[in-house]
Specification:
single chain, 326 residues, mainly alpha, 14 helices, 5 strands, globular
Length: 326
C-alpha cells in the first residue's frame, strides 16, 4: 500500500508564484507516488482573518481553480475543504484536552508571526492552538508523511509529541507523522521581501499579462546597480532567482556575464524573464478558464473528495473514541 501524505493551504488570498513553486509543484510529484490528501485549510484562515472572514469562501473557490489548473488530479489525490469534514474540529478538541499550553507557546512561529502581523490582535486560543489543529488534520488520516519547509519542522515535532502523549495515555493509536522536507526555491516579491499579499508584492497565477509585465519591470534588482553602467552581481538579484527556474542554463550564463560586466541593463534582464513567464501564466489561465466555465465539474470533484475524506475521518475518529472509552 502507498504511504499517506496530508497537506493543506490556507485560502487567505489569490495564489502567486511562491505558492506554485513552494507547494503545488511538489504536490504534482507527490500525487504520483503517495496516497495524497490535499485540503483547503479554511478553518486555519480564521486564526488571522477572524475579524473579516467573508472573503474566505471566494478565496477557497479561487484556490481550487488554481489547483486543478496546475494539474492536481482528483483521480490521484483526494481534494477537499477542511470545514466540510467536521471530524477535524472534534479531534482538535480532544487533543486540546491533553496538550500542555507550554508546548504550544514554545512553537517558534507563534511569537514570530505575532510580531510579523502586529497590526492584528492574535492573542486568541485559535492562533495559539493552530499547530494543534494542524496535528489533528494530519493524524486524523494516519498520515505517514507531511511535506513541510524548514520553518515548519517545529510543527511536526509538536505533532509527534502529541501522538506520543496520546498513545501513552490510551494505547497505541496513531502513527508518528514524519516531516518530508521540501526544497523551496528562493523567490522574493517584487520589492525584494518575502512574497506576500500583505506586502502587495506578489505575482499572481491568475493575473493578466499587462499587470504582470508592469510589476516585473518595476522589480527590485541588485541594489548596487544604481545606474545602467554599474556592474552587478546576479547572486544578489531577486530577478535572477527567477531566471534559475524559467530561463535555459545557457541564457542564464549569458545574462549573468552581462550583469557582471554591465553589458546588459536590468530592464533587458527582466524582459528575458517575461518572455518565459507570460506564456507560462497564459497557459495556466487557459486551463483555469476551462474549470471556471464548468462549475458543475468543480463541485463534483469537491463533493467526491469530501465524501472520501469524511469516510476515512469518521472511521478513524470512531476508533479514537473507542480507545479513549468515550
Amino acid at each position: 500500500m502507498k504511504q499517506r501524505v496530508v497537506s493543506g493551504m490556507r485560502p487567505t488570498g489569490y495564489l502567486h508564484l511562491g505558492h506554485y513553486h513552494g507547494v503545488l509543484k511538489n504536490w504534482l510529484e507527490l500525487q504520483k507516488k503517495y496516497d495524497c490528501y490535499f485540503f483547503v485549510a479554511d478553518w486555519h484562515s480564521l486564526t488571522t482573518e477572524y475579524a473579516n472572514p467573508s472573503p474566505i469562501k471566494e478565496f477557497t473557490h479561487q484556490m481550487l481553480l488554481d489547483w486543478l489548473a496546475c494539474g492536481i488530479d482528483p483521480n490521484s489525490a483526494t481534494l477537499f475543504i477542511q470545514s466540510r469534514v467536521p471530524e477535524h474540529a472534534e479531534l482538535h478538541l480532544l487533543l486540546s484536552m491533553i496538550t500542555p499550553i507550554s508546548w504550544l507557546e514554545r512553537v517558534p512561529s507563534y511569537k514570530e508571526l505575532r510580531k510579523e502581523l502586529s497590526e492584528k490582535d492574535l492573542s486568541t486560543y485559535g492562533f495559539l492552538g493552530y499547530p494543534l489543529l494542524q496535528t489533528a488534520d494530519v493524524i486524523l488520516y494516519q498520515a505517514n508523511k507531511v511535506p513541510v519547509g524548514q520553518d515548519q519542522l517545529a510543527h511536526i515535532e509538536l505533532s509527534r509529541e502529541v501522538v506520543r502523549r496520546f498513545n501513552h495515555l490510551y494505547g497505541e493509536t496513531f502513527v508518528e507523522p514524519e516531516a518530508m522536507l521540501t526544497e523551496v526555491p528562493k523567490l522574493l516579491g517584487t520589492d525584494g521581501r518575502k512574497m506576500s499579499k500583505s506586502f502587495g508584492n506578489s505575482l499572481f497565477l491568475s493575473e493578466n499579462p499587462e499587470a504582470v509585465q508592469k510589476k516585473v519591470l518595476s522589480m527590485m534588482t541588485d541594489p548596487a546597480r544604481k545606474r545602467r553602467t554599474d556592474v552587478g552581481n546576479p547572486d544578489l538579484c531577486p530577478v535572477f532567482d527567477y531566471h534559475k527556474i524559467y530561463t535555459a542554463e545557457t541564457k542564464q550564463a549569458e545574462l549573468a556575464a552581462g550583469c557582471r560586466s554591465a553589458a546588459i541593463g536590468c530592464v533587458d534582464c527582466k524582459k528575458v524573464f517575461l518572455e518565459t513567464l507570460i506564456p507560462f501564466l497564459k497557459a495556466h489561465q487557459e486551463r483555469r478558464k476551462e474549470f471556471e466555465n464548468n462549475p458543475k465539474r468543480v463541485n463534483e470533484i469537491i463533493e467526491a473528495g469530501v465524501e472520501r475524506a469524511r469516510k476515512v475521518a469518521s472511521a478513524n475518529l470512531k476508533k479514537i473514541k473507542e480507545v479513549m472509552k468515550i
